[in-house]
Write a structure and sequence with these properties.
Blueprint: E1 16-22, E2 25-31, H1 43-51, E3 59-63, H2 69-78, E4 81-86, H3 89-101, E5 107-110, E6 121-126, H4 134-146, E7 148-159, H5 164-171, E8 176-183, E9 186-192
Parallel strand pairs: 3-4, 3-6, 4-5, 6-7
Antiparallel strand pairs: 1-2, 7-9, 8-9
Length: about 200
């Protein structure tokens, strides 16, 4: 069975569109089968987007972007400089199509984790791929934390049944960790990089 975190999608293509309203803006997204959150802005991702504290012109990475919904909303609503990345070929193609259709200057890059992402960012947002397994997910998120600029923030949304408390215990040694909001079993976490630390780049 193909998964949204696979590089190559074997699920037959059946393109469609859906509409989303978020942060005071309306969007139409192109989607397809075999990609993350193909049917719309899921509850967890919306919770993250609505509570991430991002300013205009700050650099943002949407890690594991799927079709680019979170990153494109932030690019439009917060005027941030956004990069979207995913390992899934179909997701990358759709992210590029959506950025072009919405006339948003978003960079879309195919990358397995940070293999093709040399930069550091003010913010990294992610609704992490739980199904890759806890060790791989923790490694990905720690790598993300190391790609923050000094003073930058890693924003993670996770449900209690997916081990958010375990992740908090694991990650609290990385830097300042704060629960921004909790709702329906989900928590939006902010892990902040120390201003005087040097990123591992």
């Amino acid at each position: 069975m193909a998964h949204y975190f696979d590089e190559t999608v074997t699920t037959p293509s059946q393109p469609f569109t859906f509409d989303v309203t978020c942060l005071g803006h309306a969007f139409t997204f192109h989607s397809d089968h075999g990609v993350f959150a193909k049917d719309g802005l899921d509850f967890a991702s919306r919770l993250l987007v609505e509570h991430a504290e991002i300013e205009a012109n700050e650099t943002v990475l949407d890690l594991g972007c799927g079709i680019g919904v979170m990153g494109l909303i932030i690019a439009r609503a917060k005027a941030a400089q956004v990069t979207c990345s995913d390992v899934n070929d179909r997701a990358i193609a759709l992210s590029k199509k959506n950025a072009e259709a919405l006339d948003l200057p978003v960079h879309v890059l195919k990358s397995n984790g940070f293999e093709a992402l040399p930069d550091s960012y003010d913010h990294i947002i992610t609704n992490p791929p739980i199904r890759i397994g806890k060790p791989a997910m923790y490694a990905l998120l720690e790598d993300a934390f190391q790609h923050l600029k000094p003073g930058g923030s890693l924003w993670v949304v996770m449900h209690k049944k997916h081990g958010v408390e375990s992740f908090i215990s694991h990650a609290k040694s990385w830097g300042s960790l704060e629960t921004i909001v909790r709702k329906k079993g989900f928590k939006v976490l902010r892990l902040k990089h120390a201003v005087d630390d040097l990123t591992v780049m």
